[in-house]
Amino acid sequence: MTDGDNRNPGAERPDIDSLMDHLFRRESGKMVSALTRVFGTQHLNLAEDVVQEALLQALRQWPFGGVPRNPAGWLYQVAKHKAIDAIRREQSLVHLTGRLYDPTARPATGPPADLALLDGELADDTLRMMFTCCHPALPLES
């Protein structure tokens, strides 16, 4: 095992079902909120999907490879990378589709850079998500 390994080799194997239940109930909403802040509200469905995919990947991997030292951090990183991959795939598809119809079309622009909050923006991702969900412009069924 290398020094960079993120596994906890000496610890007893935790009950993965209990851990996953805890992570789903306590961390998945926070991860969706954080990913929505990073990638924008236009990618809310994507954020929800990649969090679910990360949880499924953990269920498949952790029983065999062990639970990482920071399970929530592991899930967030996996979800973030899945979101980036999906956005890149979407941009490539838009770019290629545009080329099929208009060979002089310019490439699609990337997602907005999001690392610093502007003055007056909410710093709490969960609170930001609550306000976003309550916005009067959203249809009730959303």
Can you walk me through this structure?
This protein has 142 residues and is mainly α. It has a domain at 14-69. It is built from five helices and no strands. The chain has helices at residues 16-26, 28-39, 44-65, 71-101, 125-133. α1 packs antiparallel against α3 (44-65) and α2 (28-39) crosses α3 (44-65). The N and C termini lie far apart (47 Å). The relative contact order is 0.14.
What can be said about this structure in brief?
The chain has 142 residues and is an all-alpha fold. It has five helices and no strands.
By secondary-structure content and strand pairing, the structural class works out as: mainly alpha
Major beta sheet summary: none
Rg, nearest Å: 19 Å
Number of helical segments?
5
Based on DSSP secondary structure assignment, what is the total number of beta strands? 0
Question: How large a portion of the residues is in β-strands, by DSSP E?
Answer: under 5%
Keywords:
single chain; 142 residues; 5 helices; 60% helix; disordered N terminus
List the helices and strands and how they pair.
Blueprint: H1 16-26, H2 28-39, H3 44-65, H4 71-101, H5 125-133
Helix pairs in contact: 1-3, 2-3, 2-5, 3-4
